[in-house]
Design a protein that fits this description.
Elements: E1 5-9, H1 15-28, E2 34-36, H2 50-60, E3 63-68, H3 76-87, E4 91-96, E5 115-116, H4 120-134, H5 143-168, E6 171-176, E7 179-184, E8 188-194, E9 197-202, E10 205-209, H6 213-219, E11 224-228, E12 231-234, E13 238-243, E14 250-254, E15 261-263, H7 268-275
Parallel strand pairs: 1-2, 1-3, 3-4, 4-5
Antiparallel strand pairs: 6-7, 8-9, 8-12, 9-10, 11-12, 13-14, 14-15
Helix pairs in contact: 1-5
Length: 278
């Protein structure tokens, strides 16, 4: 029987869960099953055509795990991968991360048999499912060790959020139609240098600021990334990094913003590192 491949779909914020799950399952089956994880630095390597590798990964897989979190279920990219697997008659299995419960999954994910990554019995069922699909004997593994690692990742994320909360919950004055508004940093999608002024695009509309991009970049470093001399984007709104028309050129797709954002060539590697894909 040919070796099966499992595609683990996730957003960049959940890459640590995806990599841990792959490592655990790969070790459990001693390499008898292949796993595709875009952020593990193995499935996609330097020089690879990123989008083509993902398309091939979907084509080759027999099963796709969808790592579901509050953010990923709103990602058009994850939904695209899930849809590609579904219409290719692949087995699509949602796996809920710590911040979301199965009952809160949207349709059509809710209608599929789902698992919770923090539940011992669910991890056992996932291992048994893969064993049956691959025609292998069910391995004897230490699920409790895996669950402890999941808790450690969750704790690190909570600690990181607490450190960033003072920035996300901070506010800055922005102007619109000669009026001044106090806007939370977390609601800002990106800052754009346009016509010798800085436009600020938020969830609630467009504003202006007198602060320059360099000043804003230094002030909010870690939450915003300067992907281009004219663009400072909120990392939490990044949905996709994709190749563009010109060789070695890339653009970003952001949530709640309709236009593609160019990524300077000298910023591509750093952008990929932030997204966990190199």
């Amino acid at each position: 029987m040919d070796k099966i491949t499992v595609f683990i779909s996730h957003i960049h914020k959940d890459s640590d869960y995806a990599i841990l799950l792959k490592k655990f399952l790969k070790n459990s089956f001693i390499g008898a099953i292949d796993f595709f994880v875009s952020s593990d630095r193995e499935s996609i390597t330097g020089g690879d055509k990123w989008l083509l590798k993902i398309e091939n990964g979907i084509y080759k897989c027999s099963t796709m795990f969808i790592l579901c979190s509050k953010d990923s279920i709103e990602s058009s990219w994850v939904n695209f991968e899930a849809g590609g697997a579904w219409f290719s008659n692949k087995k699509v299995i949602p796996i809920c991360l710590p911040d979301i419960s199965i009952k809160n999954l949207p349709q059509p994910l809710y209608s599929l048999q789902s698992y919770k990554i923090t539940e011992h019995n669910d991890i056992y069922d996932i291992i048994k499912l893969l064993s049956d699909d691959a025609g292998l004997q069910n391995p004897n593994v230490q699920i409790d060790d895996f669950l402890r690692n999941i808790v450690q990742i969750k704790s690190k994320k909570i600690t990181k959020l607490k450190k960033q909360s003072y920035v996300i919950n901070d506010s800055i004055p922005l102007t619109k139609n000669d009026e001044t508004f106090i806007v939370e940093i977390g609601s800002i999608i990106l800052f754009v240098s346009e016509m010798n002024e800085i436009s600020v695009y938020t969830k609630n509309g467009k504003y202006k600021t007198k602060q320059c991009l360099n000043e804003l970049e230094n002030k909010f470093n870690g939450l915003f990334f300067r992907c281009h001399r004219s663009y400072l984007v909120n990392i939490n709104y990044i949905e996709k990094l994709a190749p563009w028309i010109m060789p070695k050129s890339y653009v970003l797709t952001l949530k709640r913003y309709s236009e593609n954002i160019p990524v300077s060539r000298n910023k591509v590697r750093q952008m990929k590192e932030i997204l966990g894909i190199v």
